[in-house]
Design a protein that fits this description.
34% helix; 9 helices; alpha/beta; single chain; globular; eight-stranded parallel β-sheet; binds manganese (II) ion; Arginase, Chain A; 294 residues; 8 strands
Length: 294
């Protein structure tokens, strides 16, 4: 049994009674893991910057017309791990996510590098067998190993595809290697919606995305799915990305038709205040959709 403690700064400047760990329905988990970044660094400070930015959020959701914070949003202290030891971080996080779901709550993990999604999915799988993953990302992350590590952020989707899950849908892809392309062509488990295909016909993909997913869904959002003109502060930026309403429209469709059991938001860097605020806004939207459609 894990004891959860409130993080020293909490998501959203909401009244205290709505940030209580016991009562909150949504649990924010900051995980500042940064061990295998390959280009730009600074994701380990992103969770706290997003949480700081969240204190400027408007409490009311303008399109759903309710105040999501009234369901309770608590922010717990990061799981503790041995610095430099990715495996130790992943096992602590897996236990944390498993416990949050056992308590009937909705986990939203803020990274940190994308590697953490492996632990999130393993934690969720303890409770749900019929699980699929919807991953927003510029990169396929399907390499079998990278920089001599099989737990690099560049391999996370490959590791997830080896777990006992129904399917993976990747949206926004616009960078992949020959090895990854061969892997995609060799498996039915991974469906890839490339950014350019999506942007040519968003309506078609939004209407069909639910049919590619099983009933229970984990959503991972690598912030580099967004175009760098909107979110420049990411570890591996790629041109030609999705814009705000592209991502919001997909989320709305999936939350309306599926049981989303958890989410993470990863790969943001801390330096750009606008990118951090956009991430906080996205997290509040995830919470809004979860409780609007349940
Ligand atoms: Mn990426």
């Amino acid at each position: 049994m894990i004891m959860f403690y409130t993080h020293y700064v909490t998501f959203g400047d909401f009244p205290e009674e709505y940030k209580d760990i016991e009562k909150a329905r949504a649990i924010i988990v900051p995980v500042p893991l940064e061990e295998t970044s390959t280009y730009l660094s600074g994701t380990r400070f992103a969770p706290d910057e997003v949480i700081l930015a969240s204190r400027a959020l408007e409490w009311f959701d303008e399109s759903l017309e309710f105040e999501p914070f009234r369901k309770g949003i608590a922010t717990i202290a990061s799981p503790l791990w041995e610095r430099g030891n990715v495996t130790s971080c992943l096992s602590q996080l897996e236990e944390t996510v498993e416990e949050i779901i056992r308590q009937g709550k909705f986990p939203i993990v803020i990274g940190g590098e994308h590697t953490i999604t492996f632990a999130d999915v393993r934690g969720v799988l303890k409770h749900y067998s019929d699980l699929s993953c919807l991953i927003f990302d510029a990169h396929a992350d399907l390499r079998s190993s990278y920089d001599r590590s099989s737990f690099s952020h560049a391999c996370v989707t490959r590791r997830i595809s080896e777990l006992d899950i129904e399917s993976i849908v990747e949206v926004g892809i616009r960078s992949l290697s020959l090895e990854e392309n061969d892997y995609i062509n060799s498996t039915d488990k991974v469906r890839v919606i490339k950014a350019r295909d999506f942007l040519r016909d968003p309506k078609f993909f939004i209407e069909n995305i639910s049919s590619m997913l099983s009933d229970n869904v984990f959503i991972s959002i690598d912030m580099d799915v967004f175009d760098p003109s909107l979110v420049p502060a990411v570890g591996t930026p790629e041109p030609g990305g999705l814009l705000w309403y592209n991502v919001i429209d997909i989320l709305e469709e999936v939350f309306a038709h599926k049981n989303v059991v958890g989410c993470d938001v990863v790969e943001l860097l801390w330096m750009d205040k606008t990118s951090c605020f956009i991430t906080a806004r996205l997290i509040y939207k995830l919470i809004a959709y979860k409780f609007f459609y349940e």
